[in-house]
Design the sequence.
């Protein structure tokens, strides 16, 4: 995979989650809020996990949380194709390595919520190995 | 559960959501903190919710708004997000149907949001 190129439909994008309020552990669901964009950049940061095992993805998520001192609580995996299907796009910047951003978000909050709901529906919740059952 | 107990529970959920999101970057990225004004509007919205409605999950959004969410399984979900000016942004998935829109919080739940609540009941 070339991380400076737009991902294929089948590539997995991982959204690291550092807040318990952004997923439902018991139901194994990612909440829409986890995918909402930053209000500053109107982008959602994601990690391109292709070719990595769970432990390696978890380690990458832990590194992302280090600057803010936050522990990785979970991550949501979504196919790039699901992002394209709702009309959003992926900008591959590879800075830091494997980083990309979901872009193309509308300005209107209700439209953002609707798209985030669809991404959350398409996502699979993953929990760190150290996570309580 | 009595109406008082239900209200107490909802207030507890609101406080929990706010306590996590009082700092910039609470989501591990660059989320905005929840403001006092947003909390005040969320309290007003909470007090207008029909008592028969199941308790929502309350959480902060990266833009500092507070979101009330009712989820009844795959593709049956309603989210109402409140900002500091009383703007209600809502989006729902009801099976194959999708809705979204913007309303303003006045002295009652706006009609389209009330209609979305009624659609939620079908999933209970």
Sequence:
């Amino acid at each position: 995979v070339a991380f400076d190129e737009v991902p294929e439909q089948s590539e997995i994008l991982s959204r690291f989650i550092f807040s318990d309020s952004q997923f439902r552990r018991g139901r194994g669901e990612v909440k829409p809020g986890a995918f909402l964009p930053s209000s500053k950049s109107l982008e959602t940061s994601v990690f391109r996990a292709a070719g990595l095992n769970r432990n390696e993805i978890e380690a990458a998520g832990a590194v992302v949380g280090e600057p803010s001192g936050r522990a990785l609580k979970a991550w949501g995996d979504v196919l790039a194709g699901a992002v394209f299907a709702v009309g959003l796009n992926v900008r591959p910047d590879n800075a830091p390595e494997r980083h990309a951003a979901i872009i193309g978000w509308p300005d209107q909050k209700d439209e953002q919520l609707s798209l985030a709901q669809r991404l959350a529906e398409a996502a699979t919740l993953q929990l760190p190995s150290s996570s309580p059952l | 559960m009595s109406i008082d107990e239900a209200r107490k529970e909802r207030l507890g959920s609101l406080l929990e959501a706010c306590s996590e999101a009082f700092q910039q970057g609470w989501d591990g990225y660059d989320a905005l903190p929840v403001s006092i004004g947003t909390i005040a509007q969320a309290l007003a919205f909470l007090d207008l919710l029909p008592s028969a409605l199941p308790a929502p999950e309350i959480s902060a959004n990266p833009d500092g708004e507070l979101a009330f969410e009712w989820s009844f399984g795959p593709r049956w979900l309603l989210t109402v997000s409140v900002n500091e000016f009383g703007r209600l942004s809502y989006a729902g998935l009801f099976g194959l149907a999708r809705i979204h829109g913007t309303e303003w919080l006045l002295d009652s739940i706006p009609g389209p949001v009330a209609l979305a609540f009624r659609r939620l009941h079908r999933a209970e």
Q: What stands out?
A: The mean pLDDT of chain A is 95.
